[in-house]
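Help!! Second protein's tokens look totally different from the first
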Amino acid sequence: MAPTETEVAKLTEARDALRTKHLHPAADRATTAGRGIHHTALISSDVERTIRFYQDVLGFPLTELIENRDYPGSSHFFFDVGNGNAVAFFDLPGLDLGPYAEVLGGLHHLALSLTPENWAAARSRLDAAGVKYQEESGTSIYLADPDGARVELIADDLGEMYGSKIG
């Protein structure tokens, strides 16, 4: 159930207080300790289907396919999503994990940045493959991958969202 107008006002006030307390001007921010996202790992129920989707439809090359060190017989495979970042997958044969479920405390969606030209090309490949998606604001496409994980393809520059700096 959506919050009431009064609840929204209180939530907005709380968010504004957090912004004032914790969001420092760019010139005053400490340098990050991170180098980027090495990889995000999702679950695949069908390795070949996942490879065909992420490589052939979305346009992210497969870069490695190895055994998962944590689960004998399981594959761990990686796709290049640009700038040294990867999206990885595990298959977990023999475990009945059930379908992907978007749950509180779990992954909501994975947003992958593409140039506007590559975004348009990916949209054309989605259309050709018959993949259903929702387009928002002319820069975001939301879709479900073959296992149901929610993916966003976003044409905004890295560090920007809808024309505003986020990084």
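Here's the second one for comparison:
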Amino acid sequence: MAVDVVTEVVIERPVLEVAAYVGDPANAPEWYANIESVQWRTEPPVAVGSRMDFVAQFLGRRLAYTYEVVELVPFERLVMRTAQGPFPMETSYEWSSAGGKATRMMLRNRGEPSGFAGVAAPLMSAAMRRANQKDLARLKSVLESR
């Protein structure tokens, strides 16, 4: 069974500011509660082909995985896929104007877990949705307090 979780938030900051902050993986530990660290494998800044190693905690497990940027439309869309890790996952961000100086940000996680993770996909989806909602609330707070 596939995992496909979409979460959105409106942040009272301009698109360029939100996209620049979120589009820099080095900022991920500041607003993602479960991400412990990010290490670049390639030289910054983010570009198609960039690779980063992430370490996270999810559902009580330590996860280490490598993301590769597969699509980048500056200040509009960023898509990363796991190049290695516990199961294939794609994370995408989209940013658009929400009127005035506000930004609508969409976070999407999708993948095809196998083995036990495949059986637990509905549980994983629910946990991922809750985590993403909390992370986007944290992101909103971080950016709006600037």
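Reply: Different proteins will give different token patterns, so don't panic. The chain has four helices and seven strands.
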